[in-house]
Structures are given as C-alpha cells and as structure tokens.
Write a structure and sequence with these properties.
It is a single chain. The protein is an alpha/beta fold. Helix content is 52%, strand content 14%. It has a five-stranded parallel sheet with strand order 2-5-1-6-7, with helices on both faces. The chain has a two-stranded antiparallel ribbon with strand order 3-4. The chain starts with a strand and ends with a helix.
Amino acid sequence: MTRPLIVGLTGSIGMGKSTVAAMFEAAGVPVFDADAEVRAMQGPDGELLPAIEAEFPGSTDASGVLREKLGERVFGDPAALARLEGIVHPAVARKREAFLIEHAGTPIVVFDIPLLFEKGGASAADRVVVVSASAEAQRRRVLARPGMTQEKFTHILSLQVPDAEKRARADHVIDTGTTLEQTENAVIALIGELKHAAENK
C-alpha cells in the first residue's frame, strides 16, 4: 500500500496558518490538525482526562481540562510539563497514525503542526510548508486578538523558531501578506506541484 506524501504545515503565531490549512481542506486535501485533536481529547468526556486528573489532581472537571489550573501546575516546571507531554504526545501520535491509515489512498495529506520545528516533527514530513508574512502584519494580527498583550506576544515569539529560520528550512513558503485570493492561488498551485511529486516519489 502506498502512503500519501506527508506535508508538514507550520508557521509562527499570527502568520495565517489556520487560514491556509482551511484552503488545503477546501481543495480536498485531508488535514490533520494536531491542536484540534488535543482540544478534543482534553474537552468534555475527553479520553485524556482520567490520566491528566490522576497526574495533576484537581486540574479537570466535567467540562474537561481546566486550562488555567493545569497551566499553573506545569508553567515554569519542566518536569511537570514533561509528564503532561508524556500523556498528550503519544495520544496525538496514535491519532495521526489512524488518520494516515484512513487516508492511505490519497496522494497528499497535511499535518497542521504549529511547533513543527520546535518539537522536532519536521523529520516526519516529506515536505515542509511554512506560512509567513511580514513582522508588521504578524504583530498587527496577534495584538488584535482578545486578551493579547505586547508582553505575551514577545514571550510567545521567544519560544518559537524565528520566522526567517523557518523560511530558510522550508521546502515551500506561502506568503499570507497578500490578498486572500492571491494566497489561495498560491495554495492551489502548490497542491498541483505536491500531487506531481507524490505521483513520482
């Protein structure tokens, strides 16, 4: 059985990655959204709740993980964060494997992974696509988000591989500093190129 060409989609905060992921999906390319899977597994009746509650008592209730309470327990505590990741990451990997099996007959699939470079996931992808825009556009978008401050934004950026380095390490860069139509045209053109590569791999 041939497996699809695996495309890793990533980009720093505010670069438009979710918008580009939706464009891939609208064009018929299956997209695995790692963050959405984690939210579902940590939401009401989520499969990770018993393990998280056992490890961090009082951090969940009927609504799912209490993000603030859990955040207080793991933020700034590398050992606690490692224990949490030890629960979450294997579960996400299982979901990803099931997704690949489900879409084994398709030419390409997209793994939407925000911290692709930071967490070393790039090696699992055949091609890496980085979504990027100017620093000014990024700053404007992020600071428009509810509850976002310059301090929070600076902290988030400090945890992420710089945009210039991501662009340098990418196989393809999608520029979202243009109109939505231009971005969509770039995505459609890239899908054609990736399908060609999938047929010849």
